[in-house]
């Protein structure tokens, strides 16, 4: 039998994760400092940042935690139906929290396996990107997204706190951005990327699309262009992502509803169709949100004329 690190890495690979590393469950002082700076600079968004503060100390909600296991899921492998691309963020289309997605069981398999190793386990509750950097499984680019050399930023980070010491055995990855590149900052439609590594959550379309108070201000609404839910602009213009969406696997659960994911279909969708076909893909948002989708689809259609 191998070391605990080897057993956990085997487990992660078996569940479908492509990278796995470890970092002590020690506080993330830099993350807490970054939150303080953003709150001071953007007091109007303070509530959003305050909600993230508890993650800075992994032991605050799990005093027994000794190590954070950090894994990478690559989702650029899926062949997305063209009807859905360009107005719904890719990350949301292949969300592994959606039961129909083939990756749905990965996190549960990991938890089961960690428990079978006799470990106490708690999922999440840490700053994922900071943990990934500290564990050596990803680096953060100027867009604020986490990148791996193989998959670009088309990744999700999954974390688990465990009650055993596992040494951090991977070197940290350097910031992958070429000198002088600022393609993401220049392309951001709403000016959410205001500085290197600094994104204003309250201006990001990913937040404005469904979590922000409704209605969105006229200024931001007019800048959201074709995006209805999520936004891929800063990732699509990033040279580190060129050629990283590999499309090696089909996405049958999306193909089945692809005709309903067009802007035209969304702009006239009935509540019955929304509940039957669309909401199951985005089950974590309210069922009564159809008006928001329809209105956004109308605005998106108008932006293309
Ligand atoms: S997701 Fe879109 S709105 Fe948000 S930071 Fe990136 S480009 Fe800007
Ligand atoms: S677009 Fe350029 S600056 Fe932005 S994350 Fe990609 S490589 Fe870095």
Descriptive keywords:
305 residues; alpha+beta; NADH Oxidase; 4-stranded antiparallel sheet; two-stranded antiparallel sheet; binds iron/sulfur cluster
| CATH class descriptor name of the largest domain | Alpha Beta
Number of domains: 2
Helix proportion: 25-40%
H/E series = HEHHEHHEHEEEHEEHHHHHHH
Tally of helical runs: 14
Write down the overall geometry.
Answer: globular
How are the strands ordered across the major sheet? 1-2-6-3
Radius of gyration: 20 Å
In round numbers, the mean pLDDT is 96
Main sheet makeup: 4 strands, antiparallel
Helix and strand content put the structural class at alpha+beta
- CATH architectural label of the largest domain: 3-Layer(aba) Sandwich
Count the beta strands.
8
The small molecules bound here are: iron/sulfur cluster
Q: What is the CATH third-level topology name of the largest domain?
A: NADH Oxidase
Give the amount of beta strand, in percent: 5-15%
Give the CA-CA distance, first to last residue.
62 Å
**Poorly predicted regions:** none
Please describe what this structure looks like.
It is a single chain. The protein has helices spanning 4-15, 29-41, 46-50, 90-93, 106-116, 128-135, 183-187, 205-208, 218-223, 233-236, 252-255, 263-267, 271-278, 290-303; strands at residues 19-24, 67-74, 121-123, 139-140, 146-147, 155-162, 193-195, 198-199. It has 14 helices and 8 strands. The model has no long low-confidence stretch (mean pLDDT 96). Helix 1 (4-15) runs antiparallel to helix 5 (106-116). Strands 1-2-6-3 form a 4-stranded antiparallel beta sheet, with helices on both faces. The protein is globular. It folds into 2 domains: 4-80 and 96-162, NADH Oxidase, CATH 3.40.109; 183-303, no CATH class. The chain is of the alpha+beta class and 305 residues long. The structure holds iron/sulfur cluster (2 copies). The site of one iron/sulfur cluster has 13 residues, from helix 7. One iron/sulfur cluster is lined by residues 141-143, 177-178, 181-184, 237-240.
């Amino acid at each position: 039998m191998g070391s605990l690190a080897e057993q956990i890495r085997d487990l992660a690979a078996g569940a479908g994760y492509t990278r796995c590393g470890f970092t002590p469950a020690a506080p993330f002082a830099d993350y807490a400092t970054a939150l303080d700076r953003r709150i001071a600079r953007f007091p109007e968004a303070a509530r959003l940042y305050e909600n993230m503060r508890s993650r800075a100390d992994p032991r605050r909600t799990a005093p027994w935690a000794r190590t954070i296991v950090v894994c990478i899921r690559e989702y650029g492998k899926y062949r997305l139906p063209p009807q859905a691309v360009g107005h719904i963020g890719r990350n949301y289309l292949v969300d592994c929290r959606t039961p129909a997605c083939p990756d749905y069981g990965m996190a549960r398999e990991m938890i089961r396996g960690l428990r079978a190793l006799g470990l106490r386990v708690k999922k999440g509750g840490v700053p994922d990107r900071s943990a990934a950097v500290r564990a050596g499984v990803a680096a953060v680019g100027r867009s604020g997204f986490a990148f791996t050399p193989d998959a670009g930023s088309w990744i999700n980070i999954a974390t688990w706190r465990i009650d055993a010491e596992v040494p951090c055995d991977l070197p940290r990855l350097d910031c992958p951005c070429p000198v002088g590149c600022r393609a993401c900052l220049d392309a951001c439609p709403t000016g959410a990327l205001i500085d290197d590594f600094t994104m204003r959550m309250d201006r990001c379309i990913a937040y404005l699309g469904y979590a922000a108070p409704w209605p969105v201000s006229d200024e931001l609404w007019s800048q959201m262009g074709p995006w209805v839910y999520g936004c891929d602009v800063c990732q699509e213009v990033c040279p580190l992502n060129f050629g990283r969406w590999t499309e090696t696997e089909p996405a049958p659960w999306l193909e089945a509803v692809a005709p309903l994911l067009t802007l035209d279909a969304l702009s006239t969708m009935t509540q019955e169709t929304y509940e039957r076909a669309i909401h199951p893909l985005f089950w974590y948002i309210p069922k009564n949100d159809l008006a928001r989708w329809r209105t956004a689809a109308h605005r998106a259609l108008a932006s293309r004329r």
